[in-house]
Each structure stands twice: as structure tokens, then as C-alpha cells.
Amino acid sequence: MALTSKQRAELRAEAHRLTASVHVGHHGATPALVQSLDDALRTHELVKVQLNRTADEKPKTVANALAAQVGADVVQVIGRTATLYRHNPEIKRKEGDLPPWQR
After folding, report:
1. In a domain, 64, yes or no
2. Using CA of residue 103, residue 46, residue 97, residue 94, what is the dihedral sign?
3. Which of 45, 63, 69, 74 is deepest in the core (most CB within 10 A)?
4. How many domains does the chain have?
5. What is the torsion angle, in degrees rounded to the nearest 10, for the CA atoms of residue 33, residue 36, residue 82 and residue 21?
6. Is the pTM of this model over 0.85?
7. 13, containing H or E segment
């Protein structure tokens, strides 16, 4: 499910205060990295990914590849930081609760 521009804008605003929780090193998207990204998306839904400065590929290309591997949407890529989002219907939500990425 692709995000609408309004949803993307809201998620960009939410992501502003997040710190990167997944770091892509010079080995790139290893199976362990993809698994940790998948775990982070399962629990938080909205995750910032810091990309290594020495990577040969463009940050947008790496972000799109990672998003495809974990079934997420790329919210934005700024410099070498990408923000990914994947909705998790299993997370219990109540009215007035903080979103999962703020918990």
C-alpha cells in the first residue's frame, strides 16, 4: 500500500524527532541488518536508517532496496538518512495512545 502525500507529510513531521535506530555499514544490506530493520519496523512502524558515508550506491537506491526487502514505504531520504514506514496491524492501539515510534 503506497502512502498518500498527506500521510507521507505527517510521517515526515513525526520522523523529525527520531534518531536513527538502524545503521547500514560498509557491508551494505546484510541479512542481519535486514532482520534488525524488520524487527524495528515491527515494533515501531516508523524507523530512521543511517547509511554509511563510504557506500558506492546513492542513498535513495539503498533506501528503496531496503524498503522492498522488508515490505516498507520510503517516507523520505535526506542526505544519508532514510526514513521507512510499515504499518503493523498487530500493535494494539487505543484512543489517546502515543504512536508506536514515540513509545
Report:
1. yes
2. negative
3. 63
4. 1
5. -120
6. yes
7. helix 5-15
